[in-house]
Structures are given as structure tokens and as C-alpha cells.
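Task 17 of the worksheet. Students: predict the tertiary structure of the chain below and write it out as C-alpha cells. Keep your answer in the requested format; marks are given for formatting as well as content.
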Amino acid sequence: MKLVDDRGRLFGLINVVDLLVLLAVLLALGGAYYKYRGPGIIAGEEKTVRFVVLAPIQRPEVVAEMKVGDRMVSGSSYTNVVIKDIQTRPCELVATDSAGRRVKTTDPYYLDVIVTLEGKTKLSGASIVLGGQEIRSGKKYFVKSLTYEIEGTVIHVEIH
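Model answer:
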């Protein structure tokens, strides 16, 4: 039996050109599957993530807008992230005294805001994404609702 017969069929079963076209289509489909559903997108179970954001040097008028229970937004849509707790303290700053030493002081007007937020997400890969933002200690996070937006840093993350 010949490898390719007189009609151009491989092992007498399929035309060589047809086989090459079929392989090209299968490779394209496999590549698309890997790109959109590859190793980083493995469905995990839904977890509740609670995290704390420190937003320093905020105007009191903006802080007064913030309420426990406010839902966060991403783009023009509400997310499942909700404010669970809001704490304020006088804004802590570092200043230089008359001797040139750095000293910690407080600002009489501005506030530091500590916001506890919570939401549910499916953990997949090596990152936690809630409300369209990655959650990780030390990473910037925008606390934004329908009526306000402040920038802070994630200082604590708990996965339940």
C-alpha cells in the first residue's frame, strides 16, 4: 500500500490538501480556545472577600457623602462590592520642624478615611478581582460610587 495513491489521498482515505486544511482549522480553534479560556481562567468556587482601603488626605465634604451600604461602580455599572464600615481620623502628615527633623503631625482640616468593603467573586488564577479592580495589599483602589470617588491603598485582605 502506498503512502499517497494516484488520486492524491493519504493511505487511500483523505486527500492531502483536505487534511492540511482540516489541521489548519483545528489549530486555529485550539489557539482561540487557549487565548480565551486558557490556564488562567479556571472556574473556582465563589468566595466572599473583605478588604480595607486607606484613603489619606480627604476633604471632609467628600467623606460626608460616604455611607455604609453604598454600592461601588465600575464604568457605568454597579458592582457587588459594598461598603461595610467607614472610619475617619485626623489626617496624619510628616513635616519638618525648626531643627530640620522630620516629625509626625496632624492636619486640622483633612481626614484619613479607612473603608472596609466586601464582595463576592470567583477566585481564578493568581489574582482577586472585585468590581473590575484587582485586590491586593499595597495596590491602589478607587472607592467610587454614584456620587463620589476617592483613591486609596488596600491595606488588608481577607478571603472567607
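Marker's comment: The longest helix spans residues 16-37. Residues 1-38 form one domain.
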